[in-house]
Design a protein that fits this description.
By secondary structure, this protein is mostly helical. It contains five helices and no strands. The protein has helices spanning 8-14, 17-27, 34-60, 66-85, 96-102. The protein is elongated.
């Protein structure tokens, strides 16, 4: 990554599994970058939503919906990842503003 895109590497790392998101949080401690923080919150929300839905489906016996959940997860993940790659700050449709509000502890 070039120096003209500060925080882009951190933002991209955030989308690579939940562990990548945790690594990105530590990468963004110093210096703080608003672009990276935005994408860390989006990615964290995507990963938490996926795991919550997976747990919910398992315990409610609705495992037959897993294909739809995977497709939904893949769709919002690709959308967020492409926004980070293109250097854009555009929240996910419907869920993005909520992720920014709920995960304010990520700074």
């Amino acid at each position: 990554m070039s120096n003209s895109d500060p925080g882009k590497t951190t933002a991209i790392v955030a989308y690579i599994t939940i562990v990548g998101c945790l690594i990105a949080i530590t990468m963004n401690i110093e210096p703080k970058n608003a672009f990276a923080r935005f994408h860390i919150r989006q990615a964290f929300g995507i990963h938490i939503l996926f795991h919550a839905l997976a747990i919910l489906m398992t315990y409610t016996g609705m495992v037959y919906l897993s294909a739809f959940v995977y497709i939904f997860y893949l769709g919002i993940w690709v959308y967020g990842f492409l926004q980070a790659l293109n250097g854009k700050i555009k929240p996910l449709p419907i869920l993005g503003p909520y992720f920014q509000k709920w995960f304010t502890f990520i700074s």
